[in-house]
Amino acid sequence: MTLPSPETADTLIRVMLATPLPHADGALTYRMDEQAALLAEPGQLVSAPLGKRQVTGMVIDKTSGTASEDKAITYKTAIPYDAALRLTVEMQKFLNWVAQWYMEPPGGVFKMAVSVPSALTPEMLPTGYQCIADPDQASTPRRRNILIALSDMAMLPQTAASIHALTGASASTIKAMVAEGLLKEVPLASPPSASLSALPDRQYPLTDEQAIAADQLAAAVDAKAFKAFVLDGVTGSGKTEVYFEAVAAALRAGRQALILLPEIALSQAFEKRCLDRFGFRPRLWHSGLTDARRRAVWRDAIKGEPMVVAGARSALFLPFSQLGVMVVDEEHDHSFRQQDGVRYHARDMAVVRAKLSSVPVILSSATPSLETLVNAEQGKYDHIRLTNRFGEAGMPEISLVDLSKTPTERRRWLASPLVDAIKKALANQEQILLFLNRRGYAPMSLCLSCRERIVCPNCSAWLVTHKSAGQLRCHHCGHSSRFPEQCPSCGVEGMIMACGPGVERLAEEVALRFPDARQGLFSSDVITSPVKAEAFFDAVHKGEIDIIIGTQMIAKGHHFPGLTLVGVVDADLGLSGGDLRGGELSWQLLTQVAGRAGRAEKLGRVMMQTAMPEARVLQSLLKDDRAGFIAAEKADREAAHMPPFGRLAAVILSSRDQEKLTAFTTQMARQWPNYDGMTLLGPAPAPIRLLRGQHRVRFLIKAEREVNLQRAIAQWLDRVKIPSIITCQLDIDPVSFF
């Protein structure tokens, strides 16, 4: 009689799944069989069943006991991936920190760290072919010659491409030779990683100011300890070359470097700068890459391969295991704030990740954010200033064009002083940049009969005219429709008029005024990929474009040696309205775009058209009084207890049923606990009351710095039960208030 074998005592583990779950830790309990239990350590990535699908998970803990002890519960089995696919302790802490700070489900945050599912499967090694027969065994002279050629390769396996290049053999011939027993298929080992320890010397010497800053940053990398730096340099001062020295120090130590960029379009130009300095291109990371390229970067990151990654904000969640330095370029840019899904600020979280990983982080900008400058003043960050432009370049001359004194012609947008300056620059064969931060042809269309504006059917926002495409588009939900021949409100034909200028309309005027000038339009509607951006930049550098017309995309980090004149068509955009950071954002944007002028030998000139010449932002730029502007902004914020001297959080509720939404938010306001040091503002309709068909109501919570804002919000939400027809979104430390 054969006795039954004793039941295997499988290990029970807690697994955080890469999907939002209502549990506090985002985890469920699974079993792991005895053979795999050796990998049941925190951070190990596993495949776990959830309903009818398999979901990536991460072991966060072992539970007490084993699966065999409780026969009343049947636990599903989690299967570990390769032992090398394990997140570091520092990365685990970082993911938990992000989830807790932004009050997001842990599984939703973890999902960003495993965003390339194909990277979790075993690597498919390329196939090689090895000679295993004597040439005399070949059935044809051609195959005999192939065997002779391969016999001379010291019996090393060769790829099909190598064999074809060597002998001209086709893939079908190679397969036939395998079938005949003349060649043998063998897996090829992955090539060894290239050593990055021996880096080329800089092409250009650093200035004394740059060298002092670079030495300070490189020393921090060598110390392998956390330190936050603000690399604060005027436009054209060579900040990139300075922080490249910190990157070089990390590579020499065999470690990894992450550089966050605000725009994907910047990556092509950045690649070239990296190639010039290090002799190789950085590894890119953004949503526009193929799955194969993202897979390779993800796997090399978790394996600890020395490399430089230049990426969008999502690169912050790559599973680096040998991080040496982090850089946030243009740290002031609001593109680093994720506005949907998991709402986080990549700049702030870069500082957190650097601290948890014990590495330095460099926040680089010509116009640092007020939050960053206050942290530097309080001693939390080391402040490094670069006050001079590199080489012979000087700072541009700035002037204001007062539109009340020199108004533009009817349905024209360039005033005569700017037109005259453009003519002079063209005569001198110099390049011009005309900046207008409005996409499309016109921001609004109006019926002259009934005076109604044409709005989006899904959002409480005007439709933007895109004349080149013959469409009206919503820049919030993506709705588009053909330009109407008759008014949707009153039905009168031929009375719809485009109001105001966008860059397309400005380009139309430039073509009329300067018909011989070659112009190029740079906006997200035209430059839709890094490849198109690179082609545009190449044309500018080759002198094939005389007048650049662009939105804020053109203001970020670009170097055009032949550009001497910048014309800001509407410097008043962003100066009105109740945006907390409106003045700061305008100052940053105008400073950045002004910095594109005169970056080589010729002196640059900046002309800003305005109807509000006395505005604080414009006067500070005119007088080169950065310190005065920042001091005034700080004083206003401090008096109002606004960030960075206070904290904010938004609670946004949305529903298709406006009546029930209004009733619930009124009830929810009554449940507010009235905490000390906190003020509840609202409920109030959001500035965009209707978005993608959803009615929206906002609460804004204002708190003192020392208040535990997250705990208070959690306790408030515990008091109310949100109906299923209403969606609640939390926005901790918001930067946008739409």
Question: Explain this structure to me?
Answer:
With 738 residues, the protein is an alpha/beta fold. It folds into five domains: 11-89, no CATH class; 127-187; 208-386, Rossmann fold (3-Layer(aba) Sandwich); 397-438 and 501-635, Rossmann fold; 647-732, Ribosomal protein S10 (Alpha-Beta Plaits, 2-Layer Sandwich). Helix content is 29%, strand content 23%. The chain contains 19 helices and 29 strands. The chain has a seven-stranded parallel β-sheet with strand order 10-11-9-12-13-8-14, with helices on both faces. A six-stranded parallel β-sheet has the order 15-25-24-16-23-22, sandwiched between helices. Helix 15 (582-594) links the parallel strand 24 (563-568) and strand 25. Helix 1 crosses helix 2, helix 1 runs antiparallel to helix 10 (346-357) and helix 15 (582-594) packs parallel to helix 16 (616-622). The chain starts with 10 loop residues before the first strand and ends in a 6-residue tail after the last strand.
